[in-house]
Specification:
This protein is of the alpha+beta class and 163 residues long. The chain contains four helices and seven strands. A seven-stranded mixed beta sheet has the order 1-2-3-4-5-7-6, with helices on both faces.
């Protein structure tokens, strides 16, 4: 499936919530516990895009995926490192939308002189692991039982790519 990649706009907040809130309600992929409102998502978009790219993949049926980067840590020494995030609408997983979107995000980060990007993956998640490795990320860390959702402990792995 072909989707056009573009910068996010404030008008995308509801579509992003529709994608994200599925994962909030049904998976351990995000540790967020409660659905996010469109106004809260709009505020997140505004905050992130002050410094980093946030992209969406859009087709005739609307926004199908989004990807963005955020600051890795607050200390100045980490200024050239970001954490990246990508979500694809659950019913479009495997349709070939996420890869070009994520690669566009990584390219935008290269243009911003970002040195390293880190992906944080709740485990187990073989699909996300394979996806990140296909994008050139390598596993660099694994924390056991650091998150808790749906009455279970969840491990978190970190994948990294040097840009």
């Amino acid at each position: 499936m072909k989707a056009a990649v573009r910068k996010v706009t404030a008008a995308d907040a509801q579509a992003i919530c529709d994608i994200y809130n599925h994962y909030v309600a049904h998976t351990i992929i995000t540790f967020e516990q409660d659905p996010v409102s469109a106004s809260d998502m709009g505020a997140r978009v505004a905050q992130v895009t002050r410094e980093y790219p946030w992209l969406v993949a859009e087709a005739a049926e609307g926004v199908l995926a989004y990807a963005y980067a955020t600051r890795w840590r607050s200390r100045a020494a980490y200024d050239r490192t970001v954490e990246t995030t990508v979500y694809v609408r659950y019913d479009r997983m495997g349709a070939g939308i996420g890869l070009p979107l994520y690669m566009a995000l990584l390219e935008a980060l290269r243009r911003q002189s970002v040195h390293a990007a880190v992906g944080c993956i709740a485990l187990p998640n073989p699909g996300s692991v394979a996806f990140h490795e296909r994008c050139g990320f390598e596993k660099v860390g694994h924390f056991q039982q650091v998150g808790r959702k749906f009455d279970q402990w969840v491990d978190v792995g970190f994948w990294q790519i040097l840009l």
